[in-house]
């Protein structure tokens, strides 16, 4: 194992931490669940691509086209290694949202009777934890096909009620699409048994890894899922790039979602046939600089070691949960213990609306997320209008937790609660 | 502290003790407005007879700014003519887009001027406008009914 890193040293690699925030404070960035900050190596990789290698990939016979193609395909290899996947199984999209839509639309475009086609009475299994991005594409697919959506309920701490597995995953189930880690509560969903259950009834398992892939080691072979999506910008990478991973035999059987240049095998005035994956799902000139930037981000994470990243976040979460448990009038929403739990802490302060909490914290340079976190059904289930959420990453340490705790005290003083 | 320009005492008062926050059973128009980015929701009833705003009542959930602002707006509109009320909404909207450069006319906006500081915080302007836009919507619908 690589030696453990020091967050204070890590922050030096991220230019944004030199910024002075409101009230003359340093930046305490606790919103990596929304988007992570970017190390200089990622910014340089993007800049270097434009400065030295910019050309449209997979076209043209010139040197720059060669260099751009090799940088872009090199990025794909880096991402494949990161996921322990085959290179051709890694599709660059613009976002995780697009990745999940690509799967849903592709399934919707399938010929009746195909492995991916849905019909009235088929079931799509989700959970109450889902982010809108892993909910609405399935709602829409259900609407178009007559399929039915069913979901795992959660308990009061935000854990899936797995006793419902046999009731939910049945012969009617075609798709099981679950989050790996709740963006709101931090709950890590133990998927192994659910993947087995899905496969036992011939259903496809789709994993929303937006909150997991940036934070702990993902091995698609070991997870045995069929599809996986995550976004680059939550994993130290640029915006505008996401990953769609799928088993190669499935990707090569699926109908495309976006059509146009680059994704074809041959074209006539009336018809076209599709290139094999990954190109089948990469219509148009792709987001080359962003893909290269994401590869630099993954290299940065690799240099720290994903096991170290996970351990660091686990320790920091333990520290934060302990500090929170000492606070009066502050309630942590989500798992109270640190088992199967990511570095995300949602909380409410009695008598202060989350937006007002966020506003006071901002005065101290502390950036948190407030509101429903794109998980409105989850908020309704928990009977909340929203929460304040602190999410941690490689550049955070105990001093950030301490700043948050003291900011919470200031908010309570300010609003006299 | 910069925060004090946002949270004036009068706002915190309205937040803790909101006015007209109980839906009246009779109304000429009812609207339900949500702020999809943050989840704030209000239901607002108006009674407008012969061009006069006789009653405004509301209920909802939201941050101190949206709750206080709706409280201020509902109290201010009561007893105004529809035309006056719409001019006041317009004056408030203009104040919210002033980026902190205007103080607002206290003769027109009364407690509403306490919200002037909100215009310096782009993310909170929609909070302050929620109740006012709901009122405007309801008032215009009421005219049509």
Give the largest interface pair and sizes: A-B, 20 and 20 residues
Order of helices and strands of chain B: HHEEEHHHH
Which band does the percent of strand residues of chain A land in?
15-25%
Structurally, the number of domains of chain B stands at 1
Gyration radius over CA of chain B: 14 Å
GO biological process, one term (chain B): iron-sulfur cluster assembly
InterPro entries (chain B): NIF_FeS_clus_asmbl_NifU_N (IPR002871)
Pfam families (chain B): NifU_N
GO molecular function (chain B): iron ion binding; iron-sulfur cluster binding
Write the layout of secondary structure elements.
The complex is a heterodimer of chains A (417) and B (145).
Chain A: H1 7-11, E1 28-29, H2 40-53, H3 63-83, E2 90-93, H4 96-108, E3 123-127, H5 136-145, E4 148-152, H6 165-168, E5 173-179, H7 192-200, E6 204-208, H8 220-223, E7 227-231, E8 242-246, H9 248-251, E9 264-267, E10 272-274, H10 288-304, H11 306-325, E11 330-333, E12 344-349, H12 354-363, E13 366-367, E14 369-371, H13 376-382, E15 387-391, H14 398-414
Parallel strand pairs in A: 1-13, 3-4, 3-5, 5-6, 6-7
Antiparallel strand pairs in A: 2-8, 7-8, 9-10, 11-12, 12-15, 14-15
Chain B: H1 2-6, H2 9-16, E1 29-35, E2 40-49, E3 52-61, H3 64-77, H4 82-96, H5 106-109, H6 122-144
Antiparallel strand pairs in B: 1-2, 2-3
Domain NIF system FeS cluster assembly NifU N-terminal (chain B): 7-127
GO molecular function, one term (chain B): iron-sulfur cluster binding
Pfam families (chain B): NifU_N (PF01592)
Could you explain how this protein is built, in words?
The complex is a heterodimer of chains A (417) and B (145). Chain A is globular and about 70 Å long. Chain A has a 7-stranded mixed β-sheet with strand order 2-8-7-6-5-3-4, with helices on both faces. In chain A, strands 11-12-15-14 form a 4-stranded antiparallel β-sheet, covered by helices on one side. Chain A has a two-stranded parallel sheet with strand order 1-13. Chain A has helices spanning 7-11, 40-53, 63-83, 96-108, 136-145, 165-168, 192-200, 220-223, 248-251, 288-304, 306-325, 354-363, 376-382, 398-414; strands at 28-29, 90-93, 123-127, 148-152, 173-179, 204-208, 227-231, 242-246, 264-267, 272-274, 330-333, 344-349, 366-367, 369-371, 387-391. Chain A is an alpha/beta fold and 417 residues long. Chain A has 14 helices and 15 strands. Chain B is of the alpha+beta class. In chain B, strands 1-2-3 form a 3-stranded antiparallel β-sheet, covered by helices on one side. In chain B, helix 2 crosses helix 3 (64-77), helix 3 packs parallel to helix 6 (122-144) and helix 4 packs antiparallel against helix 6 (122-144). The mean pLDDT of chain B is 94. Chain A: One of its GO terms (biological process) is cysteine metabolic process. Chain A: InterPro entries: Aminotrans_V_dom (IPR000192), Aminotrans_V_PyrdxlP_BS (IPR020578), Cys_dSase_SufS (IPR010970), PyrdxlP-dep_Trfase (IPR015424), PyrdxlP-dep_Trfase_major (IPR015421), PyrdxlP-dep_Trfase_small (IPR015422). Chain A: Keywords: Pyridoxal phosphate, Transferase.
